[in-house]
From TrEMBL:
Residues 1-27 are annotated as: Disordered. This is Uncharacterized protein C9orf85-like. It comes from Mustela putorius furo. InterPro entries: DUF2039. It comes from the Eukaryota.
Amino acid sequence: MSSQKGYVACSRPQRHQNTVSFKNDDDKFDKSVQTKKINAKLHDGVFQQHKEGLEMCVTYSNYKPLSKP
């Protein structure tokens, strides 16, 4: 943590830059049936703002379906 209070602009550029973007390859790491269902699911009938959020969670492997509907 910084010892400075309030908003202070960073004086240096970010330390590490990703050269390759993250890919949610279910073949590479997680081969479970649940992951394949999540990747195949379409989010229709949802507000556009919520749809973008859900698609982002699926893209970065952060989406967890509800345990009970």
